[in-house]
Amino acid sequence: MNPPSTDARPVPVPPGAGASVEKWLQYLEAIHPTEIDLGLDRVLVVLRRLFPRKPAARIITVAGTNGKGTTVAALESLLRAAGRTTGAYTSPHLQRYNERVRINGQDISDAALISAFEQVEAARGKVSLTYFEFGTLAAFVALADAGVEDWILEVGLGGRLDAVNVLDADFAVITSIDIDHIGFLGDNREVIGFEKAGILRPGITAVCADPEPPASVLQQAAAQKVNLQVTGRDYQLRPVGDSVELTIEGLSITLPAGPLPVESVAAAVVLARVLAPTMTVSLLADTAKSVTVPGRFERLRTKPDVIVDVGHNPHAARWLAQRLEMQRSGQGKVFGVYAALADKDVEGVMRAMAPVVERWWFAGLDVPRGLEVQALVERARASGITGCTASESVGDAMSSALAEAGENDTIVVFGSFYTVAEARARLVGEIS
């Protein structure tokens, strides 16, 4: 007979009455053996206990490689401008978990979030859920408790097997399709497109902000008779001076060229015309101009400019490099502070940014899957990146870059939500 195992994980004890959000999050981290465990079976069991019937709200699901957060924020603003009540679920967060759930544009309160956690815990019984799955179901509960009319849900990873996809979308957006999360989604756009298009449902209206969607997306849309609006085919974007003109069905709507990805803003406007058909062109344009997303080409200070961006794959890095090239003064230099997770295409990101970054600071990330700084330096050298400084933390790298930068220079801090969170914490006194 084999001796009993000595490495069994202790059974986590649910937080008691009055427990804090932090205690609940620690519990969520402990109740499932793996961080990512794609599949809908477990989530569906608990969902049916929580919601015997589909929630009485319009479900809008947003998937894509990049630009999802921008689309969610733009849809929130547009629908609220039209007089609708909204709830949004996004991930990950920068400073506080509460950022992931927004009710009418405001982060959820601790009390409402804890109530949602308690309801999911009571419903799940012995069903094991990942941190993300538990949080997703809690977000659904919170939005239902708030009674909002429109749920805007950002897919966490992929689409088809992501926990968010357990709810059938009434409307959908696919922002962009590129290579990311190879270990989970595949290594080519056709396979990844198939996963993203898994959020589509028969007969719904959807928008695709990718001007060259893979055939796998178009095939799924056609098979399910989805009314798919594709940029470049069903609506057009054209630069006009410092703005971008969106043309759809004979209407022209002026959108800001930046700092957010205009393709994602445009997708939200296109869908808003369906969701809130009474909105005027001027209201659509004015609302689109006011959209902001923390951590997305966010300027934290000036002289020198410090810009943070959560972009973490080559597609996002190419967009970031273009934005930096557009806004640089011509006199100053661009300094890059970069820290990343170990499973990302750091070589591809650095190659995309190399044409605009003149001096590099690399930092390690002391988080799960965080890439140590020496490993990052070695991968940079293998990619032909020279003239770099290694720092143990993002804060140290920023301090070093700030000491060297002049008033006309730009410091861009990028590579991960964790990277941006550290940068914002470093400058919290200056941005509060």
UniProtKB/TrEMBL annotation:
GO cellular component, one term: cytoplasm
Pathway: Cofactor biosynthesis; tetrahydrofolate biosynthesis; 7,8-dihydrofolate from 2-amino-4-hydroxy-6-hydroxymethyl-7,8-dihydropteridine diphosphate and 4-aminobenzoate: step 2/2; Cofactor biosynthesis; tetrahydrofolylpolyglutamate biosynthesis
Domain of life: Bacteria
GO BP: any one term: folic acid biosynthetic process
GO MF: ATP binding; dihydrofolate synthase activity; metal ion binding; tetrahydrofolylpolyglutamate synthase activity
Residue ranges annotated for the Mur ligase C-terminal domain, each copy included: 295-417
Leader peptide range in chain numbering: none
Entry annotated with the keyword Hydrolase: no
Pfam families, per the entry: Mur_ligase_C, Mur_ligase_M
Keyword Ligase: yes
Reactions the enzyme catalyzes: 7,8-dihydropteroate + L-glutamate + ATP = 7,8-dihydrofolate + ADP + phosphate + H(+); 10-formyltetrahydrofolyl-(gamma-L-Glu)(n) + L-glutamate + ATP = 10-formyltetrahydrofolyl-(gamma-L-Glu)(n+1) + ADP + phosphate + H(+); (6R)-5,10-methylenetetrahydrofolyl-(gamma-L-Glu)(n) + L-glutamate + ATP = (6R)-5,10-methylenetetrahydrofolyl-(gamma-L-Glu)(n+1) + ADP + phosphate + H(+); (6S)-5,6,7,8-tetrahydrofolyl-(gamma-L-Glu)(n) + L-glutamate + ATP = (6S)-5,6,7,8-tetrahydrofolyl-(gamma-L-Glu)(n+1) + ADP + phosphate + H(+)
InterPro entries: Folylpolyglutamate_synth, Folylpolyglutamate_synth_CS, Mur-like_cat_sf, Mur_ligase_C, Mur_ligase_C_dom_sf, Mur_ligase_cen
Location of the Mur ligase central domain: 62-201
Entry EC number(s): 6.3.2.12, 6.3.2.17
Family, per entry: Belongs to the folylpolyglutamate synthase family.
PANTHER family named in the record: DIHYDROFOLATE SYNTHETASE-RELATED (PTHR11136:SF0), FOLYLPOLYGLUTAMATE SYNTHASE-RELATED (PTHR11136)
Protein purpose: Functions in two distinct reactions of the de novo folate biosynthetic pathway. Catalyzes the addition of a glutamate residue to dihydropteroate (7,8-dihydropteroate or H2Pte) to form dihydrofolate (7,8-dihydrofolate monoglutamate or H2Pte-Glu). Also catalyzes successive additions of L-glutamate to tetrahydrofolate or 10-formyltetrahydrofolate or 5,10-methylenetetrahydrofolate, leading to folylpolyglutamate derivatives.
Protein name: Dihydrofolate synthase/folylpolyglutamate synthase
Source species: Marinobacter nauticus (Marinobacter hydrocarbonoclasticus)
